[in-house]
Amino acid sequence: MNQGSVGKPMARVDGVLKVTGRAKYSAEHVLPNLAYAVIVTSTVAKGRVKALDVTPAQHAAGVVAVISHLNAPKLPFREHKSALDPIGERLHVLQDDVVRFNGQPIAIVVAETLDQAEYAASLVRTEYAPETPRLDFSGGLERAVAPAVGLLPNSPLPADTRRGDPEKALTDADVKIDAEYLIARQQHNPMEPHATIARWDDDRLTLWDKTQWVANVRDELAAVFGLPPENVHVISPFVGGAFGTTLRAWSHVTLSALAAKYVGRPVKLVLTRRQMYTETGYRPETWQRVKLGASRNGQLTAIVHRGIAETSSHEQYVERLVEPARFLHSCPNVATHYALLPLDVHTPVYMRAPGTASGIFALECAMDELAYALHLDPVALRLLNEPQKDEYANLPFSSRSTRECYRLGIEGFGWSARKPEPRSMSDGKLLIGWGMATAVYHTLRGPAGAHVRLLADGGAEVESAASDMGPGTSTSMTQVASDALGIPPERVHFSLGDSTFPFASPHGGSMTMASVGSAVHVACLAARAKALELAATDEHSPLGGTNLNMTDAADGRLFLRADPSRGERYQDILARHGLDVLEVTEMTQPGAEHNQYSMNAFGALFAEVAVDRDFGVIRVRRLVGAYAAGRIVNPRMARSQSIGGMVGGIGMALMEHTITDRTSGRIVNADLANYLAPVNADIADLDPIFVEENDPYVNPLGAKGVGELALVGVAPAIANAVFHATGKRVRDLPIIPEKLL
Ligand code: MOS
User: Fold this and answer.
1) 348 cis-preceded (ω within 30 degrees of 0)
2) Other Cβ atoms within 10 Å of 461 Cβ, number
3) What number does the ligand 1 atom closest to the CA of 350 have?
4) Beta bridge partners of 232
5) Residue 73 burial (CB < 10 Å; 0-12/13-18/19+)?
6) The 3-state secondary structure of 217-273, one letter per residue
7) 557 pairs with which residues across the strands?
8) Is residue 352 in contact with ligand 1, taking CB distance under 6 Å?
9) Which atom of ligand 1 is nearest the CA belonging to 510?
10) Atom of ligand 1 nearest to the CA of 247
11) Is the CB of 247 under 6 A from ligand 1?
């Protein structure tokens, strides 16, 4: 409907709540008799806890309990694997004396106040029987192993793929590229720290937890404590940024519940910024090697993409590192290999376009190197190798608007003014570089449900166990519900972040709009149909004798399309039937079309950098991202989300680097002063452009999601721009000034 709210730049429905401090984040809930917990962490990377002296801590003021493997209750830790959990066995926190990584929880102190808990935690003395940890990533690559199995529901991840004869094609190629790429470990660093408040009422557990997936926290805690899932209630209405870090229920959630049980009081546990570098995951460090072969005229003849990522020694975290090489560009001979290097570190997790962002960096930098070798414009090289279908899956694309992305990107950026030679553009003392890269992110959709309540006052309430870590789920779902019901958005209230609401797939992988949006859409249509049925079978209703196909809904009213004056408001239908409320629950899931089409969002990133000739300081002057992500439900929020993704890409390219001490496993820069991330002064002109794209296959809304796509391609576009500016090819991220000198 053209009157509809989908597609409009509606302001955030919870914006005022957030800026006035009335939006309550997990740590802000106030409970009577609350005690405060602080985690004591290991200071060696591998070994055993030989002795633990907790006596001084126990005698410190205000201390309620000190819990370690010596006195912690033995927990069932039943098998539980969400669709996103890694292969292997999760940390059984405080269940034994084994130290698996530096920063592992070895005790928890509970006190009357946070200060008392922190002070007492500092008094715990530990003696270790240390062993030599394996911590060297780049020196240990030959130990890498193939991951055991796949990744996400319905998308198996073969570690190795092959088509044609890439080795022979490389030997025969006119032009060859063979290069290695490194990406440092990176940390999510959301503003809001991880926080959990746990309260027991007999054998029922309530958790106020920062999470992107309430259903998963419920199931994980139920498994850990051996409870039926319905005994665990997870509440998480607001999330202050996450970027993937809360797609798992980490051990601090278990610790808060364990501590609350032990002391018989509600317990609050907030990770410190330093602990966020070890109690939760990170984007793993990666090594990649890309070999490309091409004919003299620029046709790709071979791609060999090999990637190795770090993981922990107890779990295999897998992501789509080498996947784009299989289908992004047309090529008859392709081999990809993915392996993991287990180290004595904690387990990585999804972060900002996990896998894809790292893999695309290598692939799209190699494509840039090939363009220079061929004396071709980088966009022209890509257009020469534009595939007709997904050559890996052997499926048609549900839609693929790469050409439109290049066209709009070139136009928006002014790319045609680019001088092809490196070091050929300058601005006074500054070297100027223009670089580009192609972006892709697979379009996912998972099962999700929604519950709709049409109210006697003409308004509506919609619920789903979804999350909103910042993109604006609450707002976009209000828009979707408003259109499907034909009720103005001001009269629709959408609620999320509660495990008692209908199940929703994880709020990650850019799949919320596709999954939860579809559920809200379908459930609201069902509620509208139910209301119409009441009217249609009612001779007193102006809609008596009509049916769904003859009617429309707008302004809170159902009416005959052929004669809009003949209609009735929702509340009048309810009133005449003596109903206070009309309720509908619908569960939805992806259909067969997900096996019939290759579904991806595509983009093209264009970057301008200015590099100081003497000091190597790099500044991203502007970024243009042309994105084809299907239907854009809210252009204002999509723009905001894309700008966020671009900022993350700038961080990945130029700053972010979690530094591990290779002897002790200690994170050296575990704070916001020493872990460099972009601030306002680092950001100049960011311009996301959305390509109009109508994809009838991805989901009922036609939305592909922009969250991850926005970041993919930013780092290689910047790296390629740095080469264009300086003539120096830096193949390891972050590109810090030292690497240019
Ligand atoms: Mo995102 S890494 O899927 O939260």
Assistant:
1) no
2) 16
3) 2
4) 205
5) exposed
6) HHHHHHHHHCCCHHHEEEECCCCCCCCCCCCCCCHHHHHHHHHHHHHCCCEEEECCC
7) 554, 569
8) yes
9) 3
10) 4
11) yes
Mean pLDDT score, 592-620? 97
Atom of ligand 1 minimally distant from the CA of 246: 4
pLDDT tens profile 388-426: 999 999 999 999 999 999 999 999 999 999 999 999 999
Percent residues over pLDDT 90 in the chain: 97
The residue type of 736 is I
The reply to whether ligand 1 has any atom less than 6 angstroms from the CB of 441 is: no
Cβ–Cβ < 8 Å for 464, 450:
yes
CA angle 206–209–215, rounded 5-degree value: 75
Q: For ligand 1, say whether the CB of 651 is within 6 Å of any of its atoms.
A: no
Contact 573, 508 (CB under 8 A): no
The sheet with strand 232-235 has its strands ordered as: 63-68, 105-111, 35-41, 267-270, 195-201, 204-209, 232-235
Ligand 1 centroid to Cα of residue 652, in Å, is 15
CA distance 14 to 21: 11
64-79 pLDDT, tens digit per residue, is 999 999 999 999 999 9
Mean pLDDT of 450-461: 98
CA distance to 54, 210, 262, per residue, from 219 (Å): 33, 15, 21
- For the Cβ of 351 lying below 6 angstroms from any atom of ligand 1, the answer is yes
Q: Which residue has the tokens 């602990």?
A: 275
Task: Tell which residue, 177, 293, 328, has the closest CA to residue 712.
Answer: 328
Phi, psi of 511 (to 5 degrees): -110, 5
Helix axis angle for 635-654 and 356-374, nearest 10°, is: 70
Alpha-helical regions (H) of 94-138: 114-121
**Residue 708 annotated to the active site:** yes
Q: How far is CA 239 from the centre of its chain?
A: 13
Query: How many angstroms from the chain centroid is the CA of residue 185?
Result: 16
Cross-strand bridge partners of residue 501: none
Residue 244, ligand 1, Cβ within 6 A: yes
Alpha carbon of 506 to ligand 1 centroid (Å): 9
Residue 404, CA atoms < 13 Å, CB-side half-sphere: 15
Q: Give the per-residue pLDDT at 148.
A: 84
- Would you state the structure tokens that stand for residue 242, as one six-digit string? 């996450």
User: d(Cα 487, Cα 455) in Å, to the nearest integer?
Assistant: 11
Q: Do residues 647 and 243 make contact, with C-beta atoms less than 8 angstroms apart?
A: no
Average pLDDT, the chain: 96
348 lines ligand 1 (CB under 6 A): no
C-alpha 361/C-alpha 470 separation (Å) is: 25
Q: How far is the CA of 188 from the centre of ligand 1 (A)?
A: 10
Tell me the three state secondary structure of residue 177.
strand
What global pTM score does this model have?
Answer: 0.97
Catalytic residue, candidates 192, 279, 310, 708? 708
Confirm or reject: Cβ of 705 under 6 Å from ligand 1.
no
> Of how many residues is the chain composed?
741
The residue type at 540: H
> What pLDDT band is residue 149 in, cutting at 50, 70 and 90?
low
Query: 536: helix, coil or strand?
Result: helix
In angstroms, the CA 33 to CA 13 distance is 33
What's the mean pLDDT in 33-61? 98
* 354 CA distance to ligand 1 middle (Å): 7
* Cα gap 735→620, rounded to integer Å: 12
Instruction: In whole angstroms, give the CA distance from residue 306 to residue 287.
Output: 8
- H helix intervals, 632-690: 635-654
Q: CA 45 → CA 135, 138, 143, distances in Å?
A: 9, 18, 19
Residues 348-401 pLDDT 10s = 999 999 999 999 999 999 999 999 999 999 999 999 999 999 999 999 999 999
* Residue with CA closest to ligand 1 atom 4: 244
